[in-house]
Amino acid sequence: MMTDFFGSLSKIKYEGPNSDNPLAFHHYNPDEMLMGKSMKEHLRFAVAYWHSFAWEGGDPFGGRTFDRPWFGDEMSKAKLKADVAFELFDLLGAPYFCFHDADVRPEGKNFAESLANLNEIVDYFEEKIAASDTKLLWGTANLFSNRRFMSGASTNPDPEVFAYSAATVKSCMDATHRLGGQNYVLWGGREGYETLLNTDLKKEMDQMGRFLTMVVDYKHKIGFKGTILVEPKPQEPSKHQYDYDAATCIGFLRKYGLEGEIKLNLEQGHAILAGHSFEHEIAVATSEGMLGSIDMNRNDYQSGWDTDQFPNNTPEVALAYYHILKDGGFKTGGTNFDAKLRRQSIDADDLVAGHIGGMDTCARGFKAAAAIIADGRFDGALKDRYADWDKDVNQAMLKDQSLDSIFDRVLKDDINPQPRSGQQEKLENMINRFV
């Protein structure tokens, strides 16, 4: 059914960079072809159900500021929320969306009632997806908001919470599979600790490794063809989370033999909390063949928490997409806007404008990344810096030479290396010509 939430707004169109229409695309032209694919196919935009429709506008110091007609615990309101969500997807021409179970259905009095509510809304989603051009990029379970998860989900000291969490993930994987989702995500929001005084690190990480192994086993049992993803974040809500950053997650997955089964869903805001740039996190993942998908947002550099704002920094976005393109682009993943309006942005068209701005910023950054690759000078400079390693004598050091033989060569050939410039300023200047 159609609602009147967005009033008379019509489908957002591409009007080009000279347009002054705030509700038009200025840089994102979904049909524009670059590197053999359309922008829509490259960027694979997704709308996050939770921030766009479930978040009420609260912050650590104040309650909700949004007054949405679908807020409430009735199934009728959950379906109204779905109606409005798919209207937004259609307005934006968004090819995908993502959701947690708790975003889309009311919490029941027990697990069975919550499951029945989820299955009912999945039935409704099937109808909405059939009538829309928007599909499911990924589904996930909320294993952090309810008070039962205050000490974690898979890492909880209470085995009944572990069991409840496993059952919840099974139900969400079933829903994702049924809706044709292309990925399934696990974010360990409370898989960590507040104090080591009551925490057994090895036990908790072994539990988490076992939990992820069961998820992979179940994926194969039901024939889910999508990718299992884990999402790094260093802290907040926990003091320290076990999925700290990309490198930590990769090491964790290798420890439990899961590196061939699970990839990473990386978020800009989480990278910043970990003290990294987004390009760093993506480069780490792509260097190990572990990039799956991204959550595109930003943090406020003057705030110490995860502010989840829509992206507006084109140079940062360009460098992120540069590494994604060098990795061959997205496979099953995409660009999910894990971003929310500011709590003062209370109007319906603010929700549309936020996504337009994010999509335009990503499009500008993506075009810059494609231009950098097409130009070739940046890649050429990088290749030149390591060119001497291509010589046979130097490759041998990485293969079969011993310290003794290298020692003898340094003496015999009187090797006395001199420093070489890294040319950082030249490279920064080169990149800035594109962004």
Automatic annotation (TrEMBL):
GO molecular function per UniProt: magnesium ion binding; xylose isomerase activity
Record keywords, A-Z: Carbohydrate metabolism, Cytoplasm, Isomerase, Magnesium, Metal-binding, Xylose metabolism
Names of the cofactor(s): Mg(2+)
One GO biological process term: D-xylose metabolic process
Binding residues annotated for Mg(2+) 1, in chain numbering: E231, E267, D295, D338
Binding site residues for Mg(2+) 2: E267, H270, D306, D308
Subcellular location(s) of the protein: Cytoplasm
Domain of life of the native organism: Bacteria
Cofactor note as given: Binds 2 magnesium ions per subunit.
Assembly notes: Homotetramer.
Family indicated by similarity: Belongs to the xylose isomerase family.
Entry protein name: Xylose isomerase
Originating organism: Cohaesibacter celericrescens
Gene: xylA
